[in-house]
Write a structure and sequence with these properties.
Layout lengths: L1 H5 L4 H12 L19 H6 L11 H18 L4 H10 L1 H7 L6 H13 L3 H7 L10 H15 L2
Helix pairs in contact: 2-7, 4-5, 5-6, 5-7, 7-8
Length: about 150
Amino acid sequence: YKAARRHAVNPRVVAAVIAAESDFQPRAKSRAGACGLMQLLPETARRFGLSRKRDLFNPAKNIEAGVRYLRWLTERFGDDLSRVLAAYNAGEGAVDRFGGVPPFSETLGYVRRIYGTLGLSSLVSAIVPPTPEPVFPAAAVAAPLAAGLAETGH
């Protein structure tokens, strides 16, 4: 709360990001190497003030760096919450390349989830395009594949 106030970031947004990123688990670590409550990559953490890798798991320091990153994104994307959240999830370069929320299923779901947590779900359809349907639905691919394996004795 203090870090959010200090950097003029809405504390409810910070809490929603923490919930989506780590489910409030300070020792969380992703397959991509993002760490701590706000799931910061080591490079991002360094950009926003964390010089030691072990500090990624210190809740206060992780939140401070994550909030500084959110503030920076807010300044860069002009208070556009959907772009700020998309950039936090997919990187600011992806938001620049697509001119808004990138059409990645993970990022679209992430923005929707946080809007929902904030009680803004009714606004999300006007801001975020619908999640794209998979080209090959998993069930349509899995059934013939399984049948083919069964025929070959695998």
